[in-house]
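Help! Submission page says 'invalid entity' but I think these are all valid:
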Amino acid sequence: MAKSIDVSDLNIYYGDFLAVEGVNINIPAKSVTAFIGPSGCGKSTFLRSLNRMHEVIKGAYVQGKVLIDGQDLYAPEMDPVNVRRMIGMVFQRPNPFPTMSIYDNVLAGQKLNSKRMKKSESDDVVERSLRSAGLWAEVKDRLDRPGSGLSGGQQQRLCIARAISVQPEVLLMDEPCSALDPISTSVIEDLIHELKTEYTIVIVTHNMQQAARVSDDTAFFNLSGVGQPGNLVEVGRTEKIFSNPEDPATEAYIQGRFG
Amino acid sequence: MTEREKSAARPVRRLGDRIFEGLSTSAGILILLTLLGVAIFLTIEGVPGITASPEELGSKTGGKGFFAYVWPLVFGTIWAALIALVIAVPVSIGVALYISHYAPPRLSSTLGYIVDLLAAVPSVVYGLWGLLFLSRELRPAYQWLAENLGFIPLFAGNDNGGVSSNSILTASLVLAVMILPIMTAICREIFLQTPRLHEEAALALGATRFEMVRMAVFPYARSGIVSASMLGLGRALGETMAVAMVLSASGVVTFNLIGSTNPSTIAANIALQFPEAFGLYTNVLIATGLVLFVITFAANFAARAIVERRKDFSGAN
């Protein structure tokens, strides 16, 4: 189910502005890959180009190739809607649909696939997804309540449950813990560890300890100056990036000398 | 208690805050007083008309007393406003959605401006338009309706097979055009306020643009759409001039949309009858105004109740 991602020579634009330049990276299946780097270096932009959410912004487009198990996401015949059904995403701020109950939030993706499900089937999907997201015990008695009534950490786990309920090939996480307290953060990090047995996970984080704790591989993004495009400086096994990086900029960032 | 504790117990009140609080409080009270003034006037002047016996009222009111007189008007008012609302709600949601989510940026601002302009047209102009243009143009369509859908009571037409284009449907169409701008403007603002976060949540799940609208925009905007509809309904209930000009009314209760006998509306009836009214009949007309006042209030309370019922899910928390 989980798939690997191959990116070659990817340039990402906002209108005329080249935001990220020349990314080549290979993200292995069933592992956690973390993107780190200073603000504005394009790591979130790059992440959003992996499920074609980048082009939602007016004037935004990419050049280059993104292959998911050999299938080019940007091939002319690829429908971005199908790409996004295959690649789930969790955002920086928890965004459950406020007008839906917890139950309906989890099923939101299923409804889009216009699958008619029996009540028992959808009950199963909801329970399985919420269990995988580690939220079942906390919400099982109030599935009909609005998702917005949960705490921030619970809401974020609800969003994870919503993303995995359709069993995507890949799960993208854009700073999923940056709006959460340390306890909720650690719950989600544990969850990422469990989820990687089933999904390919890509996570953007500002927190280097978090990258070190959760990821197998780490990619360091940087930008050479203000107004310059961001670029991928270095990617490798997390232990190596954190202990013995090849590029001096990576070392400087990891040791907290800038960023 | 020491001097210091005393001063700590009393919160600091700044002059600017006090002035502003005073201004906004008096504005709020002023609104209440105005409303109260209108209500008191309508009640005092209207009660003699309501309590008078049929004999006292005479033939002008049909000779059966106040409630028999006002009932067809109440029916006509609500019926005309509801038809207008049924037509205007989908159109205004569609236009607002096009402006907020589909149109290219330059077109959308132009279109928004044009819709706002519609609101600036005086109602007497709409009346003229409805009377001299719309009713003439609609006649063939009504004829077609009567011939092909005449078995539905709504489109029965006249007994002789003819139709009237100065009917309640024409009046409701004019009303629909008149309430469109305000409803569109409100819907558009609300649609534009849909949090980007929720739209992206839907898109990232693989929603098409329309599914995104259904999943994130409409639910978020529900209470706003209800408010917009109620404002539109309020305006349609109270609209006077256009209805008075377009509608050929005869004080009946009928669901026939395209016949030549139509129920009048309270507001139009007051406008048409008032110049010639005197004595007790003036009180009767004012009493019908009181009834309209109550209907409008009831509509607003109903809207509040609808919005309140879904409060937990509104996205406002």
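Support: the input was valid. A stray whitespace character was the problem, and the output above is from the cleaned input. Chain B touches chain A through 25 residues (CB under 8 Å).
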